[in-house]
Amino acid sequence: MAEIKVAVAQLNPTVGDLVGNRAAIVEAMAQAKHANCDLIVFPELVITGYPPEDLLNKEGFVAQAASVLDEIAAMTSEMCVILGAVVSADRAGLSLAGARDARESGMAKPAALANVAAVLRHGRVEQLIAKQLLPNYAVFDEQRWFVPGEDHGSLIDLKGHHVGVVVCEDLWSADGPAKQLQALGAEVMVSINASPFARGQQQRREDIARARLGQGSCVMVYVNQVGGQDELVFDGGSFVMDGTGIVTARAKLFEPDLVTVVIDDDLAVEADEAIEAMGDLASIYQALVLGTRDYMTKNGFRDALVGLSGGVDSAIVSVIAADAIGADHVRCIAMPSRYSSDHSLSDAQELATRLGVILETIGIEPAHTAYESMLGSALGQAPTGLTEENLQSRLRGVLLMGISNATGAMVLTTGNKSEMATGYSTLYGDSAGGYAVIKDVPKTLVYELCHYRNQLAIARGERAPIPENILTKAPSAELRPDQRDEDSLPAYEILDPILAGYIEEDLTAEELIAQGHDPQIVARVCRLVDIAEYKRRQMPPGPRITAKAFGKDRRMPITNGFRG
Amino acid sequence: MAEIKVAVAQLNPTVGDLVGNRAAIVEAMAQAKHANCDLIVFPELVITGYPPEDLLNKEGFVAQAASVLDEIAAMTSEMCVILGAVVSADRAGLSLAGARDARESGMAKPAALANVAAVLRHGRVEQLIAKQLLPNYAVFDEQRWFVPGEDHGSLIDLKGHHVGVVVCEDLWSADGPAKQLQALGAEVMVSINASPFARGQQQRREDIARARLGQGSCVMVYVNQVGGQDELVFDGGSFVMDGTGIVTARAKLFEPDLVTVVIDDDLAVEADEAIEAMGDLASIYQALVLGTRDYMTKNGFRDALVGLSGGVDSAIVSVIAADAIGADHVRCIAMPSRYSSDHSLSDAQELATRLGVILETIGIEPAHTAYESMLGSALGQAPTGLTEENLQSRLRGVLLMGISNATGAMVLTTGNKSEMATGYSTLYGDSAGGYAVIKDVPKTLVYELCHYRNQLAIARGERAPIPENILTKAPSAELRPDQRDEDSLPAYEILDPILAGYIEEDLTAEELIAQGHDPQIVARVCRLVDIAEYKRRQMPPGPRITAKAFGKDRRMPITNGFRG
C-alpha cells in the first residue's frame, strides 16, 4: 500500500455538447496527470451533461456519447479515471426482462440505457457500474430512459487501496450500494453526482455522506457538477470527507474547480484548507447569478434587457444580471404609463446610476392611446379595469421584445414566485422574456436578497446598489391610480407562508387552515394558485432554488376540478 | 353457470373533480342496475380522471379520492363494479422496500401509491388489483407516483364465470398478467384503460387485445376513458371482443357511451351491431374538436376568439371551434396590417359567412405607427426585417388578448406543427392564446383536414365551409411585401417528412440524410427545430394526435449543445 493522490474534477458541462465536454474532461485529465494523481473523478453523466433529457431518446446521440467514452478510455494509462456516462443497458450487462416492445404500443420507443460510472484505466473501459436507484420524482425523470443497475460493481485496486464507486442517488439509500461496498472492504468511496442546488442542499449532502460512512474509516470523495441548465442550477461543492466525518477538502461553490487530495496509508486525508460552506442567502444569490449567466452564455446571448419599474423585483433582477454578465452588458428600459408615479422613474434612475447600467426611458402612452381606439371599436368602449392593466403590461412586453429582436439582447423577466403562484402577472406582458430570474423567489425573500446584496457591497467598501426608497415603499404594479399589491393580495408576510405550504409541502387548504392560517385567505390563495396554472405553463424558465419550483418540479394539470 | 350481462361505461371524467366524477359513476351504475347488468366496468383512475399528475403528491387529495372509492363500494350490492382508483400502496398490500426517505434528500416527498382496479360488490371493496407495468415514457410519468403491483389478483366469480382484470399497460406485455390470468382459467378479461388518442391507436388496441386472447375462448371487455385533458385527448372506442377475435360491440368514439353486452354460457357475445371504426382523417378531426371543446368547457370558457388571416391555419381552427362549441360562440377578428393583401380580407370574410361566425376587422396600423416612433427612439431607426415582422404579430396578440380579457372569450391560436417545429411563429404574437388547436398537425395534414371537412359538408348536403381560394393560394405570413412561407422554409411537402423523422422518430440529421433527404435542407431544418425549443416552452397546450407531440411527450433541453 502507498499513499494515493486524487483529483476531484468539478466541471461545468453543457448538455448535449459532446465535443466541448470531451475537451473539458481531457484538459482536467492532463492537469491531474501533471500533478501525478493516481485517480481523477468526474460528475455523473459528465460526457452528456446533466440532465440530457430526451436527447437520450435519439439513438444517434447515445452512440456518439458512447464513442466519446471510448475515446477517453483510449487515452488513459496508469491514472485511473472515473466518470459518469450513458451506455446501452446491454453494454452495461443489464437484463431487459420486462422491457416493453414500445413499437407495438404505437408510442415512441423508450430507451433502454444505463446511467453508469465508467472506470477507465490502461487504455480501456475497465468497469461499468450502473446506477441502481433512478430518481423519478421532483425534477427527475430517470426511469424514463434508464434501466436500473443490478449490482454495486467490484472494488477497484489503487496501489493496494480498495475503491468503491456509487452513482448519485445510490448513496442516499441506507441499505444501498454504499453500505454493501463498505462491507466488502471499500476504503475510499467515490460518489459521482449531478445534484442540483436548493436551499440547504449542501448541508444535506454532507450529512448523508457522514451517515453512510458510519463508524468506519472509509474516505468519501464526493464530486458534483456545477453550472446552470435551464431550470436547474448545479452548485458544485464537491468535497472529500475523512473517515471521522470531517470535510477535509471542499471545492468552490458555483464555479468549476479541480481539487487534489492525498490519502495516505492509514487513510488520513491531506489537503489544502477546505473552503467554508456558504450561507443561505449568499448561496441563493449565487445560484441566481450562475443560473442567469449560464442560461445566457450557453445559449449564445451576451446582453440582457430589463424593464425597470422602480420596484424591488426589477431592481434585484438588474443587479443579478450585472453580477452575472457585467453591467456594461445590461440595458435597462423604464416604460412609464399615464399611471406611473414620479418616484418610479427617479428610483429606477438612481438604481441604474449606482449599478452603472444604461437606462433609457420610453413612455408607452402613444401605444396606449392607439389601443384605446383599436380596442374601443371591438368593445364598444375604451378598455378599463383588468383589461387596461394587462394592456399596459403587454405594451411594455412588445417594446422590450422589439428591442430584443433588433439588438439580440435577452429580456430577463422580473416576476417573483409569489406573483407566479397567484397569477399576479400579465401573460405576454411582464412575463414576456427569455429567462425568469426570480420566478422561484418569494417576495419576502426578494427583500432579504436585496438587503443581503446591499450589505455585501458595503462590506466590500462599495456603495449599496439598491436605493433605500425601493426597499421601503409599498409594492405596486402602478397599472391604475394609487394601486398597491395589497389591494389584490394578502400582505406578503401572510401570503408567502401559505404559498410555501400549498406548493412546496403539497398541503391542502384544509390542512393549512388547521395550521392556523385564516380560512378565507387560504381559500382565496389556493384558488388563485390553481387557476393560474395556465399562465405558469407559458412562463420562461428560471432557476430553481426552493424545495419545489414551478416547472418540471410541479406537474399540475391545467384542467383541474379539485378544490382543496 | 348462466349468461352474464356486462355494462361498459365509457365516461368523460374531469381530472381532480372528485364530486363530478363520483356523480357520473353513480349515474352509470344506476343505469346498469336498471338494465339488470351483472357487471359494470369503468376506465382506469376514473375517480380522479386521468392523468391526475402531481395532484397525487397531495396526501389530502389522495385521501379524498380513497373516500370516494369507499362511498361507491358502500352503494354496491349484487352487481359487481370494476373501476380504476388510486389508493396508498400500503392499502393495496404492496411492499415499500427500497422506497427512499425523501425528506432526508430535501426533495418533495414522493407518493407511494398504487394505480388499482377496484372490484366492488356487496357493499365492500372485494379486491384491489394494482397495475404492474407503469408506463414512464412518452406522455406518461406513472413511476413518479405509483409503486408497481406484484400479482395479477384473483379471478372473480360471476355466476360461475371466471373474470380476470388487468389495468391498461398490463395488457400490452405478452407474458404479463393477461396471459397469467388466462392460464388460471379466465373466461372474461376486463381491461380498464386511460389510453390517449394518436393516429392509428384504435387499431393497435384491438390488435393487441386479439394477440393477448391468443387461440383461447376468452372474451375481452376493453373500457377506455373519453375526453380532452390538457394535451391529451382520450378517444373512447371501448369494445368487447369475443374469443374468436371479432369485435362484437364498440362504444362511440369521442363521446361518452354506455354499452351493454350479454355473454352466454358458452362465451358467445350478444350485442347490438358494433359501431364501425373511424377513418384516419375523421378521427384526427374529431380529436381536435373534442380536445378544444373539453379544454374550453372544463376550464369554464363558453366563447372563443380566433384571429382570421385568410390563410388555411386560421380557417381550419375557426371551423374546428365552430364544430366544438357552436358557431355562435366563435368570434373572429381580422387584423390587417399595411402589408396585408386584399384577398386575405375577402377570403376571411367568405369563410366567416359560410361558417356563420362574427367577423370584425380591426386594422393594426395605429399601433404599428405608434411603435415605429417608440422603438425608433431606442433603436435609432424604425424597426425593419424580423423585428418589424414580429412586431406586427405581437400587436395582433395584444389586440386579441385585450378582447379576451374584456369579454372572457378564450383566444385559440392557429400555429401548426410545422411552424411550431421550425420556430416560424412569433412568441407573444400569433402564439399567444389559451389553446393551440393544431399545434400537433403538420401543415400538409392541415390541408388534408380542410379537404376532409369540406367533403364531409358536401356529403351532408351542406356548403363546404372553407373557400377554395384559401386552399389554393401560396401560404404567406404577410408580414412584409410579397412574403411567402417558402422564402423562409422548404416547401411543406419536403419539410414535413424531415420533421416527422427528426421529431417523431428521433432520427439524427445524419440518419435523415442517409434516408435520401437533401443534406443542406436537413441540416437547416434540424438546426431550426433545436433553436426553437425556447419558443415551444412558452406555447399554450394543444391536442396530441401524432406519435410524438411537443409538450410533455418530447422533453428536450432548451440549453442544448448537440448538433446532430
Description:
The structure is a homodimer of 564-residue chains. In chain A, strand 2 (39-41), helix 2 (59-75) and strand 3 (80-88) form a beta-alpha-beta unit. Chain A is an alpha/beta fold. In chain A, helix 6 (280-298) crosses helix 12 (443-459) and helix 7 (312-325) packs across helix 12. Chain A has two domains: 4-271, Nitrilase/N-carbamoyl-D-aminoacid amidohydrolase, CATH 3.60.110.10; 284-485, HUPs (Rossmann fold, 3-Layer(aba) Sandwich), CATH 3.40.50.620. Chain A has helices spanning 18-34, 59-75, 102-105, 177-183, 201-213, 280-298, 312-325, 342-355, 365-379, 385-407, 417-422, 443-459, 468-472, 485-488, 492-504, 509-514, 519-531, 533-536; strands at residues 4-10, 39-41, 80-88, 113-121, 124-130, 156-158, 161-167, 188-193, 219-224, 226-229, 232-235, 239-241, 247-250, 257-263, 269-270, 304-307, 330-334, 358-361, 410-413, 435-436. In chain A, strands 5-4-3-2-1-14-15 form a seven-stranded mixed sheet, with helices on one face. The relative contact order of chain A is 0.08. The first copy, chain A, is elongated and about 85 Å long. The interface between A and B is large, with 115 and 116 residues.
